[in-house]
């Protein structure tokens, strides 16, 4: 399946809104690619951060693009799960996998003790098409939502599904979901973009 790259403008707009939620943003970009989002959203503001990228050619390009950032050539899920990248005070997580974002979200929330009181997630989620085909039963992280919404409703209510899952994961990590917003986009509206503001419970 060819990757849908038609949503860059909306992706960048979402991240600029996410930046506005924080007084002093510090970014962890989980899938750096060739750095287009950095050029559009982070470079001109001199925002500090961390970026992961598995592809060695892309990782090398990212290191040259942003010499003040920590750049890791590795699998972001495994690295985040080990606490990599939290030597800087990251508070905005830019999550852009090809497919499911939920293993990345779980890795981040698993590091709750390292997170600040306010956290923002900006997410590109590619699961909606898969949910349309099978109702989400074969994606383990969606199981609580399938039980809550029913397989037949998962595609139509996928944004509600995402909000529901983030709410659950936030509470488990000691946070409250303070704000959530998103939209469908891309070919056939099969991509889902959303941002969430989490605040640690008092």
Walkthrough of the structure:
- This protein is an alpha/beta fold.
- 36% of the residues lie in helices and 21% in strands.
- The chain is built from eight helices and seven strands; from the N terminus they run H-E-H-E-H-E-H-E-H-E-H-H-H-E-E.
- It has a seven-stranded mixed beta sheet, sandwiched between helices.
- Strand 6 and strand 7 form a beta hairpin.
- It is globular, with a radius of gyration of 16 Å.
- The mean pLDDT is 93.
Radius of gyration: 16 Å
> Which sheet architecture does the biggest sheet show?
7 strands, mixed
Please tally the β strands and state the result: 7
- Relative helix content: 25-40%
The quaternary structure here is single chain
- Residue-averaged pLDDT: 93
Q: What is the succession of H and E elements?
A: HEHEHEHEHEHHHEE
What topology, given as strand order, has the largest sheet? Answer: 3-2-1-4-5-7-6
Rough outline: globular
Which features would summarize this protein structure in a list?
202 residues; single chain
Condensed summary:
The protein has 202 residues and is of the alpha/beta class. 36% of the residues lie in helices and 21% in strands.
